[in-house]
Specification:
Helix content is 10%, strand content 49%. The strands form 2 sheets. Strands 2-3-10-4-9-8 form a 6-stranded mixed beta barrel. Strands 1-11 form a two-stranded parallel sheet. A hairpin with a 7-residue loop joins β6 and β7. The longest helix has 13 residues. 22% of the residues are buried.
């Protein structure tokens, strides 16, 4: 078995694929939003393309040629956090109930386990959902493997390396 693993690692390296092993995480993990120093429980969702975050209020402002999202959220503990981020694009999200919803997407620095990285995050009211954040494939790709039998396997470390 070790020999097959070594052969696979060599083949991946020859093909230019990163041979560094992906971190195994559970389907629920704490995620730190480094930009505002708070943590949220997140559902790790390999069926979703983009990461989503629950917000309370949202206002889009035009600043010169750019649009900015001014939004508030309430992470656990009851404190209110207000953030302002430049809108990088709008995502068209297919809803379970049918139809398509247009959502603003911003860049946020997220910490999941030992990784700190920029993520595209769409902003939406997730009050009816069990978890305030959903982490999608774009953030997970080439970094994490999801074990659906596990939860809360990591602790966010925002001092860790960027990826």
């Amino acid at each position: 078995m070790r020999r097959r693993g070594a052969i696979l690692a060599l083949a991946l390296a020859a093909a230019g694929v990163r041979a560094e092993p992906a971190q195994v995480i559970g389907w629920i993990e704490p995620v730190a939003v480094a930009d505002a120093a708070f943590m949220l429980d997140a559902k790790i969702d390999t069926g979703a393309d983009v990461t989503s975050m629950d917000i309370d209020e949202l206002r889009i402002e035009r600043r010169g040629a750019e649009e900015w999202a001014v939004f508030t959220l309430r992470p656990s503990g009851g404190k209110v956090v207000q953030m302002e981020k430049r809108v990088v694009r709008y995502a068209r999200i297919k809803r379970v109930a049918g139809g398509v919803q247009r959502r603003p997407v911003v860049h946020l620095a997220l910490c999941l386990g030992s990784l700190r990285a920029q993520a595209e995050v769409n902003l939406v009211d997730r009050k009816t959902m069990r978890y305030p954040m959903l982490v999608g494939r774009r953030f997970l790709k080439d970094r994490f493997l999801v074990d659906s039998a596990r939860t809360r396997t990591t602790t966010p470390n925002c001092e860790a390396k960027s990826g």
